[in-house]
């Protein structure tokens, strides 16, 4: 089977109305001719309205970087799935390592956010990945298995049919230290095999993308690996030419 590649930008806490306008306009123009890869940007909440206006009817989808596990009510500062739907959001990142490490999001909470997203028909981009200490202690597989199992336990393996998994080794995020294509491929195969123990078809179809210092000059070799279906791009998604090059590299 052929999985359509996905390149999603994660702007993190960056941007301004003025910068976004220039960036989005340039990216939309740059990816116009790409018809065999899906491209998206996950922007900070306040810019969803701007993304909706600028990206409607273009090849660039938009998404959010987080959501509340609650649907509505007295949860000051939270943003619900239905609010994201109001702004035409298609994707939402859940369980990014920065949220796990800096904001205390547990595997269980991530699984709940995943559920809330899917209930609202949003496509969760579920981030999994190990720290350097965990890799050096040979815990990569057990850590990722735990992160994945929490989501499968709560949501069922079928839920992965409408989701994307992003493998993001924490030691490669924003460090300029990319996993080698083979290192990334090995973990992607581990993830796919793990899912296959529950359901072969879902495992074969689910898109597993790689994140961690993907740049215009290393994207092609990463995306050439058979189980790497695209990328979740941080820093390089803030530079139009770089992001467009990475999107092009994912079109096989
Ligand atoms: O979500 C994106 C990742 O955290 C990767 O960020 P990076 O490309 O800046 O390393």
Describe what you observe in this structure.
The protein has 252 residues and is α/β, with parallel strands linked by helices. The chain has a single domain, classed as Aldolase class I (TIM Barrel), CATH 3.20.20. 42% of the residues lie in helices and 16% in strands. The chain contains eleven helices and eight strands. The protein has helices at 17-30, 48-55, 81-86, 97-102, 107-119, 132-136, 140-155, 181-196, 200-205, 219-223, 240-249, and strands spanning 5-10, 37-42, 60-64, 91-94, 123-128, 164-167, 207-211, 230-233. Strands 1-2-3-4-5-6-7-8 form an eight-stranded parallel barrel, surrounded by five helices. The chain is globular, with a radius of gyration of 17 Å. The two termini are 14 Å apart. Bound molecules: glyceraldehyde-3-phosphate. The site of glyceraldehyde-3-phosphate has 14 residues, from strand 8. Residues 10, 96, 168, 173-174, 211-214, 232-236 line the site of glyceraldehyde-3-phosphate. Substrate binds at residues 10-12, 174, 213, 234-235.
């Amino acid at each position: 089977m052929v999985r359509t590649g996905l390149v999603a930008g994660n702007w993190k806490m960056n941007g301004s109305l003025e910068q976004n306008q220039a960036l989005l306009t340039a990216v939309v123009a740059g990816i116009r001719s790409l018809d065999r890869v899906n491209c998206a940007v996950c922007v900070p909440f306040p810019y969803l309205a701007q993304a909706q206006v600028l990206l409607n009817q273009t090849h660039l989808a938009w998404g959010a970087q987080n959501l509340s596990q609650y649907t509505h009510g007295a949860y000051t500062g939270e943003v619900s799935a239905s609010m994201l739907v109001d702004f035409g959001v298609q994707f939402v990142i859940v369980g990014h390592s920065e949220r796990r490490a800096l904001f205390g999001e547990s595997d269980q909470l991530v699984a709940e956010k995943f559920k809330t997203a899917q209930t609202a028909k949003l496509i969760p981009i579920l981030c999994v990945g190990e720290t350097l200490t965990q890799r050096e202690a040979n815990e990569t597989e057990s850590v990722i298995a735990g992160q994945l199992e929490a989501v499968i336990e709560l949501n069922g393996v079928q839920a992965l049919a409408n989701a994307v998994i992003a493998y993001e080794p924490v030691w490669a995020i924003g460090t300029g230290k990319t996993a080698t294509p083979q290192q990334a491929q090995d973990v992607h195969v581990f993830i796919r095999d793990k899912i296959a123990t529950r359901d072969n078809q879902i495992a074969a179809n689910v898109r597993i993308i790689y994140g961690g210092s993907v740049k215009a000059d290393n994207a092609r070799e990463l995306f050439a690996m058979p189980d790497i279906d695209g990328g979740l791009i941080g820093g390089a998604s803030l530079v139009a030419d770089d992001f467009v090059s990475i999107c092009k590299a994912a079109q096989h």
